[in-house]
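Forwarding these from the shared drive since the link keeps breaking.
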Amino acid sequence: MIAASAGVRIMIATRPVDFRKGADGLAALVREQLHDDPFAGTIFVFRSKRADRLKIFAWDGSGLVLLWKRLEHSAFRWPPISDGVMRLSASQLAALMDGLAWTGRACMPATLLSRAQRHKPCDQLDHVGCNIPQRPTNQLECRA
């Protein structure tokens, strides 16, 4: 498992993308449709139509990184399909990649993030932070 550092921005595209796209195609999608800089160090997560695959795209300072994952016996838990992006915490990304249910109603951002909100620190956003519980329940708990 690849872990994201606590200070990195993680954005998830809520609409499925064409999974034939490679790193350059996803960089163009980030620039043109998500209106963000693909080379700013933000981690972008994309979903497939079937929800059993994801691609993680990032610039690490020296090159583009593209990670692809497919779950064999289940599907990833995704937010509702809509236009735009959502910001995730590092623990939410880890839960998503493990196939855990991280999107409980109280855990979801109150609204999809506008361009201005995407650049705010996580503690200034309109959402409740989520943590993976210490007991093995495969569910996430939300902190008030």
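-- next protein --
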Amino acid sequence: MPTHLTRRRALRLLGAAALAALPAARAGGDASASKGWCRSDPAFLVGDRVVDVVLGSDPAMLAAATGPIELVLAVPVGVPASLLAADAGFGYGYTIAIREAADLLATTEGAQLRIAALAPATDDRLPVTIYFTSLDADGSLTQKEATGAANGWITLQGH
């Protein structure tokens, strides 16, 4: 099995990661899904892993958003990382920074990552959740999430 990641394989992994990152309530069709939910997602290539970062909120966020989502992806020193794709965020796109962080480690299990996001809006009460999905080259999947509110930084650390 080749150890390199082709563009076609990266796009397939990206699609799988995006589907896996959907909130369970929405996928399961239970009563809470009737409230509605909007989401936005940039995807990254970190080393040989595809990392999908989905931000979700109430549909009201689409009208309340006041600017681009600020997103910072921190990776261990020396680990290559790049943006693969991004959508329009909550209508304003993103301001994305990829930074190296000396406190994060790269191990045989993969690189530690830290994601910080801020979604500006006119309503501080709007919930914002970061859904993190990482799909390794061997097909293993990691998922985590962190919840906060509009206009406040939300941080999530994953592996």
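The longest strand covers residues 49-57. Residues 7-20 form the longest helix (14 residues).

- D.
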